[in-house]
Amino acid sequence: MEEWTAEHLRRCYFIGIDCEQAHVHQDDVDIALVGMTVTQWGDLPMPKVELGDEVRLAAAKGWKRFLEEKHVIPSSRTYLDPSKKGVFFTDSDTRNVSGVLVRFKNASVYFLPNPFAYDQINDPRIVSYLNL
User: Fold this and answer.
1) Helices (H), 1-132
2) Could you tell me what percentage of the chain is helix, strand and coil, using 3-state DSSP and rounding each to the nearest 5?
3) pTM value?
């Protein structure tokens, strides 16, 4: 990959997917990009979940609520399975991506922001800028 200059890093970049597969839903996008979650039911003890540096940094930059909603930061007895993290964690090239916009077969649209994008294109208010 070519090096990105300061000019390139000032722009938000989105990946757009026009999905014609009827069986693909919002949860599938979350799993692919963020990862698979696990819920502990009943009285089972919650395992100790280590938050990585990237998660702590993203939370400090204003992404804490989003990270809790996606259970990257454990909440409601649900946590991100550390062995099944999604592309936002496993592919460093996604740091160039501000978010992913998906149009499903039923014409609904879903946007998943990337809280781990480079600082210059990383704004936790990005969802509020989109009229979806």
Assistant:
1) 6-9, 26-33, 53-58, 64-69, 87-90, 126-129
2) 35, 20, 45
3) 0.86
